[in-house]
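EI: anyone free to look at a 312-residue chain?
SC: sure, send it
EI:
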Amino acid sequence: MNREAASPSSPVGRFAPTPSGSMHLGNLFSCLLAWLSARSAGGRMIMRMENLDTQRTSVEFGERLMRDLEFLGLDWDEGPYWQSERGGYYQECLDRLTEQGLVYPCFCSRAELHAADAPHASDGDYIYQGACRGLSMGEIGEKSRLRSPAMRLWAEGRVGFQDLHYGWYEQDLQRDCGDFLLRRSDGVFAYQLAVVADDGAMGVTEVVRGRDLLSSVPRQLYLYRLLGLQEPEFAHIPMLLAEDGRRLSKRDADMGLDSLRQRLSAGEIVGRLGYLAGLTDRLEAASPRELLDGFSWEKVKKEDIFLPKDLF
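SC: here you go
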């Protein structure tokens, strides 16, 4: 891939798609803004496939995603890295946290976690109440004979940060998210641990993604600090919504790139995304490089964006 010169202080961004299907407009929107933010400052891009759960992802989908990004003119300088090949490193990070006395086994079932009277955060995530935090060694041994445990991190304190787009955001970890997963009971490492471990190891300095992930940042910053990793800056972006207010997903086949390519050129897709973001006031075809000069976080909208009828 392209290897542009970058100064040591230039940002390092990343693409981190989950290869579980065709990219939809929301994915493309995030990738475009991540690329523009890093490239406009002379920075580099890393490609990483977040395929922790190999049961619902595939290398084939990952290769398709990369071809799709190349089709749109979105290049990268390093990678691809595949999370499925990095389990040894994640285990090292888990061991480091365990040595600090902050990790404990959790035997709660899915039904127990989603009990009707269980509290939830505003984003729908379960707020774990620490039911397994105080188990004795005897109780852990007895429960381990019946089922394999997940591993949780004891999280406490207030963590805040300045988002490059939305400003200050802060959480009380125990109140707003609770002790969170580091590894599932089936042995799959959790997203929070893997993404922090990878971004830290790969030198990522700037993370651009949808605002639905804004609430995960305090947990990730907590992990960065415990692991002694360099924290990146974060910039969250508005969500692309269907006319009826639904979030776009890979189930929206007509908004998937496979479908879009049948009726629009790469330039028309990129130009429309730039228009929706607020980077241009003209609805015309454009390449990512043609949007670089006009890129500014001040131009990017903060409100979620409803897709106009027939725009795509």
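EI: DSSP finds eleven helices and twelve strands in the chain.
SC: 👍
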